[in-house]
Each structure stands twice: as C-alpha cells, then as structure tokens.
Amino acid sequence: MGKQTGNSAALLRYCAGIDVSKDSLQICLSTIDTNGKTTVKGTSKIANKVSSFDGLLTWVAKHCKEKQLPVRYLMESTGVYHEQIAWYLFQSDLSVSVVLPNKSKNYLKSLGHKSKNDKIDARGLAQMGLEQTPTLWKPLSKNIYSLRMLTRQHQRLQELKNQSENQKHAILHSQISDKFIIKQLDKLIKLYDQQVEQITQEMQNLLSKDSVLKNKIDQLCKIKGLGLLSVATLVAETNGFEGFENLRQLVSFAGYDVVENQSGLRSGKTRISKKGNSRIRRILFLPAFNAVRFGEPASQALFERVFVKTRIKMKGYVAVQKKLLTLCYALWKKDVNYDPLYHSQHVKELEYQDKK
After folding, report:
1. What pLDDT score was predicted for residue 332?
2. Which residues are CB-contacts of 334 (< 8 A; sequence separation ≥ 6)?
3. pLDDT (tens digit, 9 = 90+) per residue, 308-321?
4. What is the mean pLDDT of the chain?
5. Do residues 72 and 82 touch, judged by C-beta distance below 8 A?
6. Which of 163-167, 185-189, 245-249 shows the lowest mean pLDDT across its residues?
7. Is 356 a residue whose pLDDT tops 70?
8. Is 99 exposed, middle or buried (0-12, 13-18, 19+ CB in 10 A)?
9. How far is the C-alpha of 222 from the C-alpha of 220, rounded, in Å?
10. Dihedral-angle region of residue 115 (phi above 0 means left; psi in -120 to 50 means alpha; beta otherwise)
11. Are 43 and 27 spatial neighbours (Cβ–Cβ below 8 Å)?
12. Of residues 253, 213, 229, the one with CA closest to residue 150
C-alpha cells in the first residue's frame, strides 16, 4: 500500500498516459488513491525517437516517489507511430497497454472535455489507465508482423489497380477517349497484377519457413470460401488471435458487435458498429458470398435463417462474415481440424435430445 495522505487515503498505482504523434510524445504521469481520486504528478514532452526513450524512463522514475507501486503505460494505436515506444517499453519488462483511438475518444467525452490538445489527451489516457484495466499489449511475432505488412501491401496494390480500371472504364465510355492514356493505364494494371502475384508468392515463401504457422493457416484454408489471402489477413490483423479472452472481444475488435437504437416506444434500426478493424471486414466480404455459394454448412444455414427472418440478403452475408471470423478463432485456439459436417451433426444431436 502506498503512502497515507491527509484524508487517510493511500496511493494505489501510477499510470503514464502517452499521446503519440509522428515527431513527439506528450506524457502525463498520474496516480489514484483508495478514494478513487486521481492526481497529476507531472507532464513532459520528448521526441518520438529511440534515443529519447531512456530519458522517458528516467523522468518517470524521478516522479514516482512510491517505488513499490506498479506503473502502467497507456497510449493509443496511431498507425505505426506508437510501435517504437510500445516495443521499447515491452522489451524493458514494463506494463504497456495500447487502446483503439475511438475507445479513448469516447472515454474523454465521458469526462466532459470540450477542448482537445496533446496535454489533455495524455492526461485523459493516464486517468483511463488508472480507472480501468486495459489489456496488456503484446507485440506481433516477427513472421506475423511480416505477414501483416504483406497483406496490407496487397490491399493497397489491389485498390490502386481498381482505381486504374475504373479510370480506364470512364475514359472508354466518354465522348472523346485518349489512346495514350489508355495505353498507360493498361501498363499500370499489368504492373499491379505482377506485384500482387509477387506479394502472394512472398507470403507462401514466408509460411514455408514457419511450419507451425503454415499448418494452422492451411487448416483454416480448408473452410469453404476462405483462401490464403483472407486467412493470412485475419491472422495478421489479430496477431494470431492473441489477446482475445473470448469471442465477444474479437467480434468487437472487428466491428461486428451489434448496436441497438431504441428509446421508449421508438425502435430504430439495429446494425453492426463498424468501430473496429476495417481490414477484417473488407477481407471477409467475398468469402462470405463464396461460403454460401459453395455450401459451407454452418454459413449456409445461418444465411438462410437470417434471410427468412429479415428478407435482406446483405444482413445474411454480414452474419456469415461474423460466423467465419468466430469459426477461425475457435479452430485456431483449440488447434483442431475443420469438420464441415460438425454443424449438421450438432443440430441433429440437439433435435434427437429434444425428442427424448
């Protein structure tokens, strides 16, 4: 227990909130006592580069008077700019948590903050780390990190190719077309195709060097509708499903959690939140169609059930996307083989038990 204060409250722990930008880190160190009161112990600002990180730890140690109390570091996931400091703290055996920007944004709103700057954000993150228990951050393994870079590059190349194809289509159907531009666009499309093929080959080369990762990904690829790219993206974006204690957390991370819109007698539309990893939802869009088309038992049954209830096909396909995600999670965590007949057999067992 920490030092007793004047009102007999003892300090419980420290938290350093770090607001990350490309060039700098704004830090706020705060404490919380047994009465739930938070107090700012100091603020600082350093450059966002490895050579400055030792100074950060020295500054924190100087302001932590109660050396026996735990210290938590909390920051937002800001693209790639938070990764260096997060890695540094993790490798220093310190407790570090990384939260999604929308989660910290909503928390700051709940505190009633109307203004926004780096100091306010850092202070809010420190208070959030003290009042809540955010999950400890774990870095990606080297191979999964490489896989993530490859899958994200694949997405970028595919988007560029689609832009060029749309531009070519527009020119071909305009009043006056330009053969020179069409020729340039054809060359670009061909180049993108070549690079996409190289990315796919590099993913296969990477997996061939990691037999454990390859076997688990191959197992998920046996699910009808899913292929190497879709499974590799799921694994890369979820860090091999690490850090998720249950399906609910994974579903929320991907933005498939349901948001209700109801108040009193008014009942609005129920939809998914889409507040999560958009790459997961994007990569599961076509696999959901293929899973239903090619008769993946659990997915097809779910689609038909949702469609009968809502008469909206897209709601059925979104439900299938969520189903594929949770199916991959279950197979990965339990390390079991995919059984396409499991769903139908399970249903028959339940029906038999109901008749008894």
Report:
1. 94
2. none
3. 999 999 999 999 99
4. 89
5. no
6. 245-249
7. no
8. buried
9. 5
10. beta
11. yes
12. 229
Q: Which residues of 283-294 are buried (b: 16+ CB within 10 A; e: fewer)?
A: bbebbbbbbbee
Q: What is the pLDDT of residues 87-138, one digit of tens each?
A: 999 999 999 999 878 788 888 888 877 677 889 999 999 999 999 988 898 8
Single-letter residue type at 117: N
The three-state DSSP-derived secondary structure of the chain is: CCCECCCCCEEEEEEEEEEECCCEEEEEEEEEECCCCEEEEEEEEEECCHHHHHHHHHHHHHHCCCCCCCEEEEEECCCCCCHHHHHHHHHCCCEEEEECHHHHHHHHHHCCCCCCCHHHHHHHHHHHHHHCCCCCCCCCCHHHHHHHHHHHHHHHHHHHHHHHHHHHHHHHCCCCCCHHHHHHHHHHHHHHHHHHHHHHHHHHHHHHCCHHHHHHHHHHCCCCCCCHHHHHHHHHHCCCCCCCCCHHHHHHHHCCCEECCEECCEECCCEECCCCCHHHHHHCHHHHHHHHHCCCHHHHHHHHHHHHHHCCHHHHHHHHHHHHHHHHHHHHHHCCCCCCCHHHHHHHHHHHHHHC
What is the pTM assigned to this prediction? 0.76
Closest by CA position to 85, among listed 108, 106, 54, 112: 54
Bridge partner residues of 17 (DSSP): 28, 74
For residue 44, count other CB atoms closer than 10 A to its CB.
Answer: 16
Q: Which pLDDT tens digit goes with each residue over 262-303? A: 555 555 677 888 888 899 999 999 999 999 999 998 999 999
C-alpha to C-alpha distance for 90 and 247, rounded to whole angstroms: 26
Who has greater pLDDT, 339 or 158?
Answer: 158
Backbone angles phi, psi at 341, to 5 degrees: -95, 0
Q: What is the pLDDT of residue 107?
A: 87
Listed ranges 5-9, 16-20, 75-79, 114-118; the one with the highest mean pLDDT = 16-20
Under a CB-based contact definition with an 8 Å cutoff, are residues 125 and 78 in contact? no
Question: How far is the C-alpha of 190 from the C-alpha of 338, rounded, in Å?
Answer: 37
> For residue 59, how many C-alpha atoms fall within 13 Å in the half-sphere facing its CB?
16
